[in-house]
Design goal:
Layout lengths: L2 H11 L2 H9 L5 H8 L11 H14 L6 H4 L9 H8 L6 H18 L9 H9 L4 H8 L14 H31 L8 E3 L2 E7 L8 E6 L5 E6 L3 H29 L3 H26 L2 E2 L2 E3 L4 E6 L16 E5 L5 E5 L6 H17 L3 E2 L5 E3 L3 E5 L12 H15 L4 E5 L8 H17 L3 E5 L3 H9 L3 E9 L4 E8 L7 H7 L4 H9 L3 H80 L3 H29 L1 H12 L15 E4 L4 E9 L2 E6 L2 E6 L4 E2 L2 H9 L18 E3 L5 H17 L5 E5 L6 H12 L3 E6 L9 E6 L3
Parallel strand pairs: 6-11, 9-14, 9-15, 12-13, 13-14, 22-23
Antiparallel strand pairs: 1-2, 2-4, 3-4, 5-10, 7-8, 15-16, 17-18, 17-21, 18-19, 19-20, 23-25, 24-25
Helix pairs in contact: 2-3, 3-12, 4-12, 6-12, 7-9, 7-12, 10-11, 19-20, 20-21, 23-24
Length: 811
C-alpha cells in the first residue's frame, strides 16, 4: 500500500471525511468548497510547522469577520469559472450568460478591493486584498454590453438598438393585422380557436381542417388530432419575411458584440483567474473558521517540540449529535519524556472516541481548522499518521483479524518517523494473551525508540503495569461511576483503570447466572490485580474530589474578595458624599459670617471700630478654616492629606463654576469653546462658531479665569482668528451605524471645528454604502455649507463610494 493510500485510510478511520463534509457546507462558493474538499488528500495538508501555523493564523484572522456578511454574502452560490476562463483563453466566443457569470466574480473582487483598510486587522488577509487586481477596467467593458440583470443590453451598439426597435414595430404590425383577420374569419366560422401561434418562426392562425381551402395562405402544420391546420395568411407573409430577416440581422449583431467583447476580455483572463483563486482561498478559510464556531474551536498552536496540551477538549463531531451541555470534555496533556499515552478503562467507556479525538486534532493542526478547547491548544507537528483502529479482517484477501493487525504493525514499523503519531485501538487482541502482551510491548518499545508519539487503548493487565516501570509510558483511565455502575467518559490521567467486562455484560443484559459462573473462572492473580486497581481508582477519585473542592473554595474566596471590594468602594463613595455635604454646610455658615462682617464694615465710623471688625473677620476666617480642616479629617482623611500637599505647591487657579446665559465654556467632545445661549434644566444651547447645538450641561466645562481674560482681551473681527482656533480634530469621521439625524448633527459640528481649526485641507467622511441614506444626507449637507470648496468619492483604497473626501475653502 502506498503512503498516500495508507494516510487516506487512516484519515477515514479517524472520521476525517465526515468532518470535512460538514465543514464543506460552510463554504459560500463552489471553488471555496472545493478547496475544503481537497483536504481529504493528505498531500494538501501543511508540509511543515511554519506552514501549519500560517493556516491557523489565517483562520484566526477571519474569525472576527464572520459577522461581516458584506464580505462573504456576495460569494453565495458562485460556481467555478475555470471552464469559462479556459474557453476564453482558447479563443471561444462567450455567451451572454457566461459574461454575466464572470461579472459576478468581478463584483465580488471590486467589493473586496474597496474595503477600507482600517477595517481589516489581519496581516495575511490585508496583504491578499492588496494583491487583488482592481477590476474597474474589466467591469467597464462588461457594463457597456450587459444590463444590471445580466442580459445583453440594447445599448450595446447603435445597430442592436435599431434592430430591436424594428422587430418590436413589426411584431405590433403583425399582431394588429392578425387581430383583424381573426375577427373576419371567426365571424365566418372558419377558425378552430381564436388565437395566434408561431410555427417555424412565422405567425400563424388555427383554421378548421375542413375550411383550409377557404383561407388564402400557407399551411405550416397541423394539430395531433388532425382537426386543425396552422395557416399563415397571405397578407401576413411579407411582414413575416421582414421579421425573419431582422431577426437574422439581430443574431449576427449579437454574435459580433459577443465576439468583440470576448476579444477585449481575453487579455484579462489570467488576472481574473488569480483574483478568483485568492477569493476562493479566503472562502475556504472562512469555512474553516465557521466550522470551528459550531464546536467552540480555538486556533491550534503547532510546535516543533513533543508537548501535547488540550484543555477541556472533545471530538468535534459530538457537537453535531449532542447538545453542548451533554458533551463530556477532557484535559489531555503530556510531553517528554512521555512517548506513549496508554488509555485503559471499561468497555464502552469512550476510549476509542478519545483516541480519534487526538488523531483528528493532529490533522486539524496541519489543515488550519480550530479545535475544541477552553484555552489555546498546543500540538506537535506530526508529519505522518498511523492507525490500527477497527477489525482488519478481510475474507476476500484471506486475512484473519490477527493477521490484519500484524500487517498494520509491519507497515507502521517500516514507515514511522520521529514526527509520527501512532494510534492503536485495543493493543494485544485476537491472539494468545501472553504472547500478544509480549508482542505489544515489543512493538511499543520499537516505535518509541524511533521517537514517535503513541496513543493506545488496551485491556491487558501486563501492559497496564508497564507504566509503573517505564517513565515513557503514561497510564490514563476512563472513569467509571461506582454508584450508577455506568462510565462517565471522563479521562483520569496517571492511573490505569479496570476493564469491567463483567459489569458491562451485566448492563447489556447477560443473565446473572452466566456472570456468576464467569466470576468463578477468574484467577486469584486477576482478582488481586483488579482489587488493586479498584483501590487506586478510589484514591484517585478522592484526590480529584479534594482538588475540585479546593478549586471551588478558591473561586468562592475570589467571589467574596470581589464583593468586599465593591462594598468597600461603596462605603468610600458614601463617606465622600457625607464629606461633601458637611463641607457645603460649613462653607455656607462661613459665607454668612463673612457677609455679616462685611455689613458691619460699612457701618463703622472710627478707627477703633475698624480694627475691631477686622479682628472679628480674621477670627471668622480662622474658625471657618479650622472647621473645614476638622470636617475633612473626620469625613475624608485622604482629601485632607491631598489639601495639605496642595498648600506646598501654591494656590490653584480658580474657575468660574456657575453656568449662565452668555458664559463662555469648554466643549471637550469637540476640543473647542462655545458660548451658552440658553439653559433649560440640564440642557443648554451652545454656539460654537456658526453652529448652535443643543447638548447636556454635563458635557460642558468651565474656563479658568486666565482663559476668560485671554478670550475677552482679543476678539476676532472677521473669519477665523489664529488665536481662537480650536485644536484640529481627526482627519476622518465615521458615521456608519448612526441614525441619519444624529449623524448629520455630529457631522456638522465636526466640519465646523475642522474648518475653524485651520487643520488639514481635506477630511474624509466614512458613511458606507448601505441604503444610501447617510451618503445622500452627507452630500446634501455639504452642498449647504459655505466653507466647503468641493467633495468627491473616496476612490480605490480609500473607501470608494462608501466614503466622501471634503476640501475646505480657506481663501
Amino acid at each position: 500500500m502506498s503512503s498516500k493510500d495508507w494516510e487516506q485510510k487512516v484519515a477515514e478511520a479517524l472520521d476525517w471525511n465526515r468532518f470535512l463534509e460538514l465543514a464543506e457546507r460552510e463554504g459560500r462558493s463552489e471553488p471555496g468548497r472545493a478547496l475544503v474538499r481537497s483536504l481529504s488528500e493528505p498531500s494538501n495538508w501543511a508540509s511543515n510547522c511554519a506552514a501549519a501555523n500560517l493556516r491557523q493564523q489565517e483562520t484566526q484572522e477571519v474569525t472576527p469577520l464572520l459577522v461581516r456578511d458584506s464580505l462573504w454574502g456576495p460569494l453565495d452560490g458562485l460556481a467555478d469559472p475555470e471552464d469559462v476562463l479556459e474557453r476564453l483563453q482558447k479563443g471561444a466566443v462567450l455567451e451572454v450568460s457566461e459574461l454575466a457569470f464572470l461579472r459576478k466574480w468581478l463584483f465580488v473582487t471590486e467589493a473586496w478591493t474597496q474595503m477600507p483598510r482600517d477595517e481589516i486587522s489581519g496581516e495575511h488577509l490585508k496583504k491578499s486584498i492588496q494583491a487583488l487586481s482592481d477590476p474597474f477596467d474589466i467591469l467597464r467593458v462588461l457594463d457597456r454590453v450587459l444590463t444590471p440583470e445580466g442580459d445583453l443590453s440594447e445599448r450595446a451598439s447603435p445597430k442592436l438598438g435599431t434592430l430591436h426597435h424594428e422587430i418590436r414595430g413589426l411584431r405590433r404590425e403583425i399582431d394588429s393585422l392578425l387581430d383583424r383577420i381573426l375577427k373576419t374569419l371567426s365571424a365566418k366560422g372558419l377558425l378552430q380557436e381564436s388565437f395566434t401561434d408561431v410555427r417555424d418562426g412565422r405567425y400563424v392562425i388555427p383554421v378548421r381542417m375542413s375550411a383550409q381551402n377557404e383561407v388564402n395562405g400557407i399551411i405550416y402544420g397541423a394539430s395531433a388530432s388532425r382537426q386543425t391546420v396552422f395557416v399563415e395568411p397571405a397578407e401576413v407573409s411579407p411582414l413575416n419575411n421582414r421579421l425573419r430577416q431582422r431577426q437574422n440581422d439581430l443574431l449576427q449583431e449579437v454574435f459580433r458584440i459577443l465576439s468583440e467583447t470576448s476579444d477585449r476580455l481575453r487579455p484579462y483572463a489570467p488576472e481574473i483567474r488569480t483574483n478568483v483563486q485568492v477569493l476562493a482561498h479566503w472562502d475556504a478559510v472562512h469555512a474553516r473558521a465557521r466550522a470551528g464556531l459550531h464546536y467552540a474551536g480555538k486556533p491550534l498552536h503547532v510546535t516543533e517540540d513533543r508537548q501535547i496540551f488540550l484543555r477541556q477538549t472533545a471530538h468535534p463531531l459530538l457537537w453535531h449529535s449532542l447538545p453542548p451541555e451533554q458533551i463530556i470534555r477532557n484535559d489531555i496533556g503530556f510531553g517528554d519524556p512521555v512517548k506513549t499515552l496508554l488509555i485503559t478503562g471499561p468497555n464502552t467507556g469512550g476510549k476509542t472516541v478519545l483516541l480519534k479525538t487526538l488523531g483528528l486534532a493532529g490533522i486539524c493542526a496541519r489543515t488550519g481548522f480550530p479545535f475544541p478547547a477552553t484555552e489555546r491548544p498546543s500540538l506537535p507537528f506530526f508529519d505522518s499518521f498511523f492507525a490500527d483502529v477497527g477489525d482488519a479482517q478481510s475474507i476476500e484477501e484471506h486475512i484473519s483479524s490477527f493477521s490484519g493487525h500484524i500487517l498494520r504493525f509491519k507497515e507502521i514499523i517500516e514507515r514511522v518517523t520521529d514526527q509520527s503519531l501512532v494510534l492503536l485501538d485495543e493493543l494485544n487482541t485476537a491472539t494468545d494473551p501472553e504472547e500478544g502482551a509480549a508482542l505489544g510491548r515489543a512493538f511499543l518499545e520499537t516505535v518509541m525508540n524511533r521517537g514517535a508519539v503513541i496513543v493506545s487503548t488496551t485491556h491487558d493487565p501486563r501492559l497496564k503495569a508497564a507504566s509503573v516501570s517505564d517513565e515513557r509510558i503514561l497510564s490514563a483511565s476512563m472513569e467509571f461511576d461506582e454508584g450508577s455502575r455506568l462510565p462517565t467518559f471522563r479521562l483520569v490521567p496517571g492511573t490505569p483503570g479496570r476493564s469491567r467486562a463483567l459489569e458491562t455484560a451485566e448492563r447489556l443484559g447477560i443473565p446473572l447466572s452466566v456472570l456468576e459462573l464467569a466470576r468463578q473462572y477468574l484467577s486469584r492473580e486477576h482478582l488481586e490485580f483488579e482489587n488493586l486497581l479498584t483501590k487506586l481508582e478510589h484514591d484517585v477519585h478522592e484526590a480529584d474530589h479534594a482538588r475540585r473542592q479546593a478549586v471551588h473554595f478558591r473561586n468562592e474566596a475570589e467571589k467574596l474578595k470581589k464583593e468586599w471590594t465593591e462594598k468597600t468602594q461603596t462605603a468610600v463613595e458614601e463617606m465622600l458624599d457625607r464629606a461633601r455635604h458637611r463641607l457645603k454646610r460649613t462653607l455656607e455658615q462661613a459665607q454668612d459670617e463673612v457677609r455679616s462682617a462685611v455689613r458691619r464694615v460699612t457701618e463703622v465710623k472710627t478707627r477703633r471700630e475698624v480694627d475691631r471688625v477686622r479682628t472679628e473677620l480674621d477670627s471668622a476666617a480662622n474658625i471657618t478654616a479650622s472647621r473645614l480642616e476638622s470636617a475633612l479629617r473626620e469625613e475624608a482623611p485622604e482629601i485632607a492629606s491631598a489639601l495639605e500637599q496642595a498648600r506646598t505647591t501654591g494656590p490653584m487657579e480658580s474657575v468660574e463654576r456657575e453656568f449662565a446665559v452668555g458664559t463662555t465654556v469648554r466643549v471637550p467632545k469637540w476640543k473647542t469653546t462655545g458660548t451658552i445661549l440658553e439653559i433649560s434644566g440640564q440642557k443648554a444651547k451652545v454656539a460654537m462658531g456658526s453652529l448652535q447645538v443643543q447638548m447636556a450641561v454635563a458635557e460642558l466645562e468651565p474656563l479658568l479665569k486666565s482663559e476668560l481674560a485671554q478670550l475677552s482681551a482679543s476678539r476676532p473681527k472677521r473669519g477665523v482668528s489664529p488665536d481662537s482656533r480650536p485644536p484640529a480634530p481627526p482627519s476622518q469621521i465615521d458615521l456608519r451605524g448612526m441614525r441619519l439625524d444624529d449623524a448629520m448633527r455630529e457631522l456638522e459640528i465636526y466640519l465646523d471645528v475642522a474648518y475653524r481649526s485651520g487643520g488639514p485641507a481635506e477630511v474624509t467622511i466614512v458613511h458606507g454604502l448601505g441604503t444610501g441614506a447617510l451618503r445622500e444626507g452627507t452630500r446634501k449637507l455639504l452642498g449647504n455649507l459655505p466653507y466647503i470648496l468641493k467633495f468627491r468619492d473616496g476612490g480605490v483604497g480609500a473607501g470608494g463610494a462608501g466614503a466622501t473626501i471634503v476640501e475646505f475653502d480657506r481663501d
